[in-house]
Amino acid sequence: YVTKISQQIDTLLKAGVPAKNIVILGASAGWDIALHVSARQKNNAINYVIMGGCWPETYKEYVPLELYGRFLSIIEKSDPHGTCYKIFEGRKYLNSHSEILLNTGLSHGFIYKGHKQWIVPIVNWLRE
């Protein structure tokens, strides 16, 4: 999937779509794909939203991976997955990272359908 998504991004960029208008959203296992797409694209203007995927010690697996772009992490207080903050610490090529903590009570199910609690913050973040 990393290769397929990277090729789709390349097609958009070649067609003249500004990188800042591209958004990659990865939820649950998809957040791993989004991180690897970022490393492959090496474009600081692409936007990445990751939701519900980070386990407490997961960040250690990503230390050697260089990340590029703007990142927004959305986590749910009741989800056993946790913060993604450590994955983004000390990254020299990263444009930016911010994280939003939700309290919907839906555990990991907060990603199973669109909820205004995460859609509205994503739209606002993209407008920044």
Note down, in words, how this protein is organized.
By secondary structure, the protein is α/β, with parallel strands linked by helices. The protein contains four helices and four strands, in the order H-E-H-E-E-H-E-H. The protein has a four-stranded parallel sheet with strand order 1-2-3-4, sandwiched between helices. It is globular. The N and C termini lie far apart (29 Å).
List the defining traits of the structure above.
4 strands; 128 residues; 21% strand; four-stranded parallel sheet; alpha/beta
* Integer average pLDDT: 94
Question: Helices and strands, in N-to-C order?
Answer: HEHEEHEH
Q: What order do the strands of the largest sheet run in, or round the barrel if closed?
A: 1-2-3-4
* Rg estimate, integer Å: 14 Å
Beta-strand content bin: 15-25%
Structural class by helix and strand composition: alpha/beta
Overall geometric form = globular
Query: What's the end-to-end separation, in Å?
Result: 29 Å
Flag low-confidence runs.
Answer: none
Helix content: 25-40%
Query: What is the total tally of β strands?
Result: 4
State the major sheet. 4 strands, parallel
Number of helices: 4
Q: What's this, in brief?
A:
Helices cover 32% and strands 21% of the residues.
Break the fold down into its secondary structure elements and pairings.
Blueprint (H helix, E strand, L loop, with lengths): L1 H13 L8 E5 L2 H12 L5 E5 L17 E8 L8 H4 L5 E9 L13 H12 L1
Parallel strand pairs: 1-2, 2-3, 3-4
Helix pairs in contact: 1-2
